Amino acid sequence: xxxxxxxxxxxxxxxxxxxxxxxxxxxxxxxxxxxxxxxxxxxxxxxxxxxxxxxxxxxxxxxxxxxxxxxxxxxxxxxxxxxxxxxxxxxxxxxxxxxxxxxxxxxxxxxxxxxxxxxxxxxxxxxxxxxxxxxxxxxxxxxxxxxxxxxxxxxxxxxxxxxxxxxxxxxxxxxxxxxxxxxxxxxxxxxxxxxxxxxxxxxxxxxxxxxxxxxxxxxxxxxxxxxxxxxxxxxxxxxxxxxxxxxxxxxxxxxxxxxxxxxxxxxxxxxxxxxxxxxxxxxxxxxxxxxxxxxxxxxxxxxxxxxxxxxxxxxxxxxxxxxxxxxxxxxxxxxxxxxxxxxxxxxxxxxxxxxxxxxxxxxxxxxxxxxxxxxxxxxxxxxxxxxxxxxxxxxxxxxxxxxxxxxxxxxxxxxxxxxxxxxxxxxxxxx
Length: 431
Description:
By secondary structure, the chain is of the alpha+beta class.
């Protein structure tokens, strides 16, 4: 629909717009299509102005119904081993489709029903990881405690949580990287056992790799803290504050644990401050006073964390040389992209395109403030613009390759869309 409207607008106004620029939720209700979802008997299940709103209604109703369902086979608690047979991809419950999945409960796993395949897949990773940890708990704990410099690692972790909490996070992280990885499609006991037998021999090596990675993270954090704690003159205070917030979002201190379901590593904007209660990750995070950043940051990004911290040190070193104007100019060139990120919904931030945008911006920070450290991918403002076009943006905003924003007047956009919608009549129905 967005593409068709964009093409029609170009014919009417001569101003071409990419599909990603449209935000239909901001339009007046009378310009939004009517969407109605009906069942097989023609009864209305949900209706509203806009597909997203109706989808959320259906998902919410389905989720509420499934939450109250006690299935004799596919809802269970206190699971510590795979003893429930083969796990189907989808079942029918009270004429509703439901997706069963394993869920991580901390000390055990459970079987629950979900309203969508995506929700079940997201939960399944944690559930599989928990079962693998339970099979090798004592052996894995011994491997971790024998890591070189484990005592010093516990001291470095002290601001984020206890030694026991560090061990638990390392166990989950090592088990996830060893046995789960990117393959979360285990649905049978036979496949689960085969995966365990196939990768058991990699456990010691993976423990060493994760231990080395975590040591490097804390080493870079220590070095950054030393520089940050220096006395800084007034012209540097804004930049120092930005760096401090960036550090804390990547590695939240234990006294302020991040909220589950939010996104980590947010960069504080130059012009305004984003909401503070939105660090987080794709992993399930338990409550308490400990920080769980080792599990929150995607596994493939964890190894890059020392480089991100080192780039912050490089920025501080340039500030020590009183390059305040240059620092401000660079920060302002990055800020529009972070503004887009901050304004995404939590759901959008967890989508692959949103996650990709988040880490591309982090790499852009490295390229701008510490180019000699290198980046994990080719990065530029132009590439960021293309990525921004793939996620939701504010109404009428199109980021340019210079990092600026061109604004299409809302009145012009609404008038043109009104002219188009006048040509159509009748509600759109989805069955």
